[in-house]
């Protein structure tokens, strides 16, 4: 919004997004340096549901913010796929982007409550998600 970019086009894996990706990362880092909770507060603003999912947290400070604000009700979920699977899905490593904190800031220092493997086996993925959902329902 600040820079007049097309929000919808930034949501996909298009060349449009890639053209602005490093600038978006830099802008996000500047925001976080002045206010580590900036994006977390934006994610929960107006949320009134008893359960909600915040997807795509990127940094340890994000996880810490949610844990500090919401305590033990927070459940962290990491979705993983092998590098081979990611490449089959047309992922190509870009130095300076894919090794930046915005992409790998949670690779260390976080103990996730759940780790879901998404390597293309729909049955296995469904079973994992069902187990997660059942656990969340029991916590209600």
UniProtKB/TrEMBL annotation:
NCBIfam families: Pmev_kin_anim. GO terms for cellular component: cytosol. Pfam families: P-mevalo_kinase (PF04275). GO terms for biological process: cholesterol biosynthetic process; isopentenyl diphosphate biosynthetic process, mevalonate pathway. This is Phosphomevalonate kinase. It is an enzyme of class 2 (transferase). Pathway: Isoprenoid biosynthesis; isopentenyl diphosphate biosynthesis via mevalonate pathway; isopentenyl diphosphate from (R)-mevalonate: step 2/3. PANTHER family: PHOSPHOMEVALONATE KINASE (PTHR13101). Gene3D superfamilies: P-loop containing nucleotide triphosphate hydrolases (3.40.50.300). Keywords: ATP-binding, Cholesterol biosynthesis, Cholesterol metabolism, Cytoplasm, Kinase, Lipid biosynthesis, Lipid metabolism, Nucleotide-binding, Steroid biosynthesis, Steroid metabolism, Sterol biosynthesis, Sterol metabolism, Transferase. Its main location: cytoplasm. Its EC number is 2.7.4.2. It is found in: Cytoplasm, Cytosol.
């Amino acid at each position: 919004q600040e820079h007049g970019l097309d929000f919808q086009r930034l949501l996909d894996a298009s060349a449009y997004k890639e053209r602005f990706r490093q600038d978006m990362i830099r802008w996000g880092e500047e925001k976080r340096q002045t206010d580590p909770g900036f994006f977390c507060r934006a994610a929960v603003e107006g949320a009134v549901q008893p359960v909600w999912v915040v997807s795509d947290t990127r940094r340890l400070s994000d996880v810490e913010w949610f844990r500090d604000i919401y305590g033990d009700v927070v459940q962290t979920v990491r979705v993983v796929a092998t590098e081979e699977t990611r490449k089959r899905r047309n992922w190509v490593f870009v130095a300076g982007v894919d090794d930046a904190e915005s992409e790998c800031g949670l690779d260390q220092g976080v103990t996730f409550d759940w780790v879901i493997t998404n390597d293309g086996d729909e049955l296995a993925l469904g079973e994992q998600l069902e187990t997660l959902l059942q656990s969340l329902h029991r916590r209600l």
